[in-house]
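Final report, closing paragraph on structural work. Over the funding period we assembled a curated collection of sequence-structure pairs, and we close with a single example.
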Amino acid sequence: MSTNISTQPQDWREGRRFRAWELKQQGWKQQDIAKALGVSPGAVSQWLKAAREGGPEALRRHPAPGPQPRLTPEQKAQIPELLAKGAEAYGFRGDLWTTARTAAVIKEVFGVSYHPAHVCRLLKEIGWSVQKPIRRATQRDEAAIAAWYAERWPELKRGRKKREGP
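Its predicted structure, as stored:
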């Protein structure tokens, strides 16, 4: 009695499950199948139950489904519209969108909390890039910096003067 598995196994694990099914069809006992394949009898029992209930195709690899997205596709499509209003519209100082700010707006509007690192992935999905703020001291004196670049920097850039003599 042979099984009718239409295509080749995707990986060695699938092949092992199919082989267990074939051996069972040939009259082997579960314990003997487990020994022959180097697996536990419990694993063989689960495989054979799956094949009995769903046919040999039930022995195929099924990727883990993962968690359900917390934002619906419609909500995700609204994110660019929200961001287009500008960060200041949501009470932030400066019109710059960071992942933390975006996460706060998503939480406020949709009630869904995301880590800023995941918000980065969401933004890439919808075609937006992440903006990083330039962090500067609040006491920074732009006039003094400009004067330093104009007067002192050219001297330093020329380099040290060579010493004469021994």
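The chain has a mean pLDDT of 87. Residues 73-125 form one domain. We thank the funder for supporting this effort.
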